[in-house]
Amino acid sequence: MRALMIRNVVAGVVTGAVIAVLAGVGVRAQARSVELEPVPFEVSGQLPIYPKALYRYGSTGTTVRKLEARLIQLKLLEKRYLDNEYGTMTRAAVKKFQQSKGIPPLGYVDQNTWDKLLAATREPTQTELYPPVPVVDGRKLDARCATGVALCIDKTTRKLRYVVDGKVLMQMDVRFGAVKTATREGGFTVGWKSRNHVSKLYDSPMPYAMFFSGGQAVHYSSDFAARGYAGASHGCVNVRDLAKIKRLFDLIKVGDKVIVYRS
């Protein structure tokens, strides 16, 4: 009797296992028969595998410039952001393009996005990629002033020019630091602004200050207005036209370029 009970239990277990296996096979077979809706990238389980990025935030180089030139053709990006750098504005323009093509707005360029962008635009010309450098008073400005918003500051002519997409919209006289406190040359950006700034180091007013390199800034100087080039700054770019720098201060934004060079 005991042996019979054991056989019945074992038979029940085996039967249950077989049913479970068959049920599992049925479920899998049924799952295979369900059609999956197409997605823009492969799916592994429930986790998306995102497409490989060709260009993304932080990318630099001439290929990024070509990408930006094509986005400019579509009026998704302003000319001022043609700068070889995949920054915030380029990323926003890529998202807009992706949305217009029904692509998930990932904000970076994968092969699918790039192919669709190539199809929607033409090969940028040399002029589109490298707009002509502005010429003022017979002198070419620095090439970095040809695109975007720039404070183009020429140490040779002692001029500051407010340039937007290669057009000089404002010009003013400036003076620079003395030999021991020379104004640094190179490409910078406006880091911060201070309308009524006072230097803690020299205890002197620096109104309408636009800082671009450490403590060096473009600002109004009453001393420059009074003494002209007889004096010098401690490294800043002094402006003596109060009315102009007031206007300039309101136009310039944090992040705009500052190019200090010699022509």
Description:
With 263 residues, the chain is α+β, with helices and mostly antiparallel strands. It folds into two domains: 62-127, Muramoyl-pentapeptide Carboxypeptidase, domain 1; 132-261, L,D-transpeptidase catalytic domain-like (Beta Barrel), CATH 2.40.440.10. The protein is 33% helix and 24% strand. The chain contains seven helices and 13 strands. It has a nine-stranded mixed beta sheet. It has a two-stranded antiparallel ribbon with strand order 1-2. Strand 10 (205-213) and strand 11 form a beta hairpin. The N and C termini lie far apart (110 Å). Residues 1-11 and 13-39 have low confidence and may be disordered. Residues 149-261 form the L,D-TPase catalytic domain. GO terms for molecular function: peptidoglycan L,D-transpeptidase activity; transferase activity.
